[in-house]
Amino acid sequence: MSSLADIESAVETLPRREQRKLLLRLAARLERPAKKAKVSLHERMKDLCGIVDSGIPDLATNKKHMEGFGRWRE
Predict the structure, then answer these.
(1) pLDDT value of position 18
(2) Which pLDDT score is estimated for 70?
(3) What pLDDT, on a 0 to 100 scale, did the predictor assign at position 16?
(4) Distance, CA of 46 to CA of 11 (rounded, Å)
(5) From CA 37, how far away is CA 35, in angstroms rounded?
(6) Which residues of the chain have pLDDT under 50?
(7) Buried/exposed 31-61: b ≥16 CB within 10 Å, e otherwise
(8) How high is the pLDDT of residue 29?
């Protein structure tokens, strides 16, 4: 990656008109809000996971409840 001095030197070699265009583009980019990284719903709510106790035990441990699970019904 170039150092700031290298970049400044390269910009100084440009004609004044091109320097102005470059500065205007950079200024516009600085004013534009940064794009936020996409965050999953789980990431946003992970501090809330497991805070509610419904009082219902895990139904997967009830053999009668799991009877026929995953089978096609006609």
Answers:
(1) 92
(2) 79
(3) 93
(4) 47
(5) 6
(6) none
(7) eeeeeeeeeeeeeeeeeeeeeeeeeeeeeee
(8) 86
What whole-number distance in Å separates Cα of residue 12 and Cα of residue 46? Answer: 51
Give me 13's structure tokens.
């070699």
Cβ neighbours of residue 60 closer than 8 Å, sequence gap 6 or more:
66
pLDDT value for 5? 87
How far apart CA 72 and CA 58 sit, in angstroms, is 23
What the block records as the tokens of 64 is 């009668």
Kindly compute the dihedral angle of the four CA atoms of residues 38, 44, 49, 54, in this order, to the nearest 10 degrees. -100
- Give Cβ neighbours of residue 6 (< 8 Å, ≥ 6 apart): none
Q: Report how far residue 58's alpha carbon sits from residue 61's, in angstroms, rounded to the nearest whole number.
A: 6
The amino acid at 53? D
Q: Residue 54 corresponds to which tokens in the numbers above?
A: 């419904």
Taking each helix axis from N to C terminus, what angle separates 4-12 and 16-31, rounded to the nearest 10 degrees? 130
